[in-house]
Give the backbone structure.
Amino acid sequence: MGARAWALLLVLCGTIFLEGADIAMMAVAIPSIRSDLGLATDTAAWVMSAYVLGYAGFTLLGGRAADLLGRRRMFLLWLAVFLVFSGLGGFATEGWMLVVARFVTGVSSAFMTPAALSLITTSYEEGPRRNKALLVFAGTGAGGFSLGLVIGGLLTALGWRWVFFAPVLMAGALLLAAFRLIPRRPVPPPTGHGFDLLGALTAAGAMLLAAYTVVRLEHGLDAWRSTTASALGALLLGAAFVGVERRAANPLVRLGILRMGPVVRADLGALLFVGAFFGFQFVVTLYLQELRGWSSVQTAIALVIMGCDAVLAPTLTPRLVARFGNVRVIVGGFLLAVLAYGLFLPVGMDWPYLAMFPTLIIAGTAFALAYGPLTIAATDGVAESEQGLAGGLLHTATQFGSAIGISVVTAVYGLALGEAGGSAPEARLSAFRTALTVPVVMVVLGLVISLLSVRAVRRASQVSSVNASQTSANPAQRSGGMASPK
């Protein structure tokens, strides 16, 4: 790639780094924010949950908006919104101000991130060049989260408001560079009549309720009626959305994309993999801080080794994909994840860091092998006009995955602690071990799905080989009577 192509990729990767670092820094800063502003426990929880609701609720709409309204336009607009509301969060004096700022920041990420991904898939031709760009993009996002833990700890020591102001500085620099580097392209006219407003409303409503349901899972059986009601509401709006899309002249989501097996398997795999990764990291953070008494900075530094994927994803993974194929590398990533999380199951009360290190570095390596290739698989073979939609589906899956992973491990931990009958260190350690089974189960399910992808690729290869041999044996086809299949 030339210098301008690398500069464009650097800007687009900067946004996913910003998004990952923003989430991580906020997770580290929440205790200080709660103490300084005197927030109630539920308000502090909503400062985190509001971002998830905004992100997960609007990512599908954001991806399609990039296709229909212009990728450059959506990227620049929502990066500016991210900048403004991140800055407003830094000036907040009440809990509700933070909740509003985080919700709008989440919504801006829901539009900005799929636009960035679709800009990559439409700016770099399909093949090794695009694959490398996507692997760099994926690795940068995970590296942003891992480094954000350390950066957040350092900024919080200076004052929690810097956790909001630092992203403003980075977003401003990215915005200026993006104006110069992202080429202007004509927006293709819609194929139908107008924008699918009803589809957009039902999709956003269904996703918001579904995200709220997932967030409610961490409360376990408490207020289960509210959780059940929101789940039923999400299902009803989801059914209404499908009905609207079937009848719309210009649907927001072409439902046929959901019948593309490789795309669906990649999205499900990403949901399970990311959910397991964030669920595991959340449990380990609680273990180190609540049970072992480590500070937030100590915990962040201990976990930063999981960010090795930021180095491995653009260097090692492209070579493995070129040699073994995308799907086999994904399987390898899931196998390493099963090994990593399984090794941590017998965690002890006083494990030294060296005992944890193999799990942490293997987990980071697994992320490098799986997430980038899953991103490639989720967008491969999709028409250019629907690359934003494909990106929206992928990021919807990853956001729901992270929310599910954290919520379910929290719920399982709470239930296990209740059954242990107390908060003694031994009871909490037992509850942590029980919660750690959640990421193990998630990556095992993801491994099964990725093995199905291997089987599908093998079957397609066999069919292609049979067709090719039949074509070569037929003189009429050799002379051009019929085009040979790819």
